[in-house]
Amino acid sequence: MKVLGIIKETKNHWEKRVALNPSAVNQLVKAGYKVKVQSSPIRIYSDSEYLAAGAEITDDLRGCDFILGVKEIPCAEIQPGIPHLFFSHTIKGQDYNMPMLRDILNKKVTLLDYELIKDDQGRRQVFFGKFAGDAGMIDTLWGLGQRLKLQYGLDTPFLKVKRAYEYDSVQDAIEQLKPVGREIREKGLPPEILPLNFFLMGYGHVASGCREILDSLPVQERDPEELEGISDDKDPYHLNLFVFKEHHMVERKDGKDFDLQDYFHNCEKYQSKMEKYLPDCSVYLNAIYWGPRCPVFLPNSFLKSIQGNSPKLIIIGDITCDIEGSVQATVKATDPDNPIFIYHAVTGEVVDGLKGDGFAVCAVDNFPCEFSREASDFFTRALLPYMAELLEADYTKPVEKLSLPAEIKGACIAHRGRLLPEYSNLYEKLKDLD
């Protein structure tokens, strides 16, 4: 009998999500698998619910054939020689997770990552992205209202927005945001912030969550090319939404024509052209995938140039939250109950909260945990179809010979303690630990 171990989440006390809910565990138990669930006092589904589903509740996951989690797993909890599947946040060489990766290799572990489970078109198959967009958009709107009041003394309908975790569900948030939208349509926004321009970077799963929330408000969607002359549009009864796609964001360094597939494969050949748009941005929403070879789209050089000049930019919602990535002001992550910090671009000073000279940044690195139950159920539906094959595979074989779907093989970062060739560059990052 194959044994699945589900680890408790320890990233912070907000991380209540699960990779498989009790209903899915019950299906696995009925199919003849044993499931061991590490006891957790904060998980959105209780120990008793998993127990009722047929799981064994324990602190000890030794003896499992496969380990499942959501976020990074502490080194002490990584089981030697056993395949693990979780969001490892290692493929970009993230410094803060290199000690964990070294431990994984030392313990001869096979590491699989949800972020890399993709179909043959490169589309992710197991994800929380929409819920990151939902929560990130709500928290940014909350921060917008609070920042305008506390720093600039402006009352707006956005003051009625709560933080995402204070709503019962995404739909509850949408229903409670609709009166905010009506107030904007009926009473308008202060002239000091007009036109109120939202820049949405991206159009994938995260961006779809952002748009789901923004649909509660009176939004006019406009093409970024319309930004020229937009400052004369002082309509107080709408906010403007500009959705930026790759061809808006970058251009080839050598002056040749933009090519989307070429950009995906050779992004280092491209440079950002966002600075021609940024002076008109009120709310910057980062909802894109970004890697170290990609251009920086909101650089500190731009923020420094407008620091202290009563900038139009009110708040940055960095939903994908790559530390010092495409938004260089994202120098740290925040928590749902205190999601905003103020970044002074000239001095580099960071102050938690909503007051101070600089730029408000909303950068929670696990936004979906604010809707833990909905997000977990959605994730479970995507992951469950793969579970039998994940449990039955013989991981003593090379990756190419594993009886796993192609999308799961493609999610393998390390196998039995060695990085796969496509991730061998991470060995250089590991040397920095010595």
Could you please describe the fold and organization of this structure?
The chain has 434 residues and is α/β, with parallel strands linked by helices. The protein has 2 domains: 3-117 and 372-431, 3-Layer(aba) Sandwich (Rossmann fold); 129-365, Rossmann fold (3-Layer(aba) Sandwich), CATH 3.40.50.720. The protein has 12 helices and 18 strands. It has an 8-stranded mixed sheet with strand order 3-2-1-4-5-6-17-18. Helix 4 packs across helix 6 (205-214). It is globular and about 70 Å long. The mean pLDDT is 95.
What layout of secondary structure does this protein have?
Elements: E1 3-6, H1 22-30, E2 34-38, H2 47-52, E3 56-58, E4 66-68, E5 84-85, H3 98-106, E6 111-112, H4 129-150, H5 170-187, E7 197-201, H6 205-214, E8 219-222, E9 239-244, H7 246-249, E10 250-252, H8 260-265, E11 270-272, E12 283-286, H9 300-306, E13 315-318, E14 340-343, E15 350-352, E16 359-362, H10 372-392, H11 406-409, E17 412-415, E18 418-419, H12 426-431
Parallel strand pairs: 1-2, 1-4, 2-3, 4-5, 5-6, 7-9, 7-12, 8-9, 12-13, 13-16
Antiparallel strand pairs: 6-17, 10-11, 14-15, 14-16, 17-18
Helix pairs in contact: 4-6
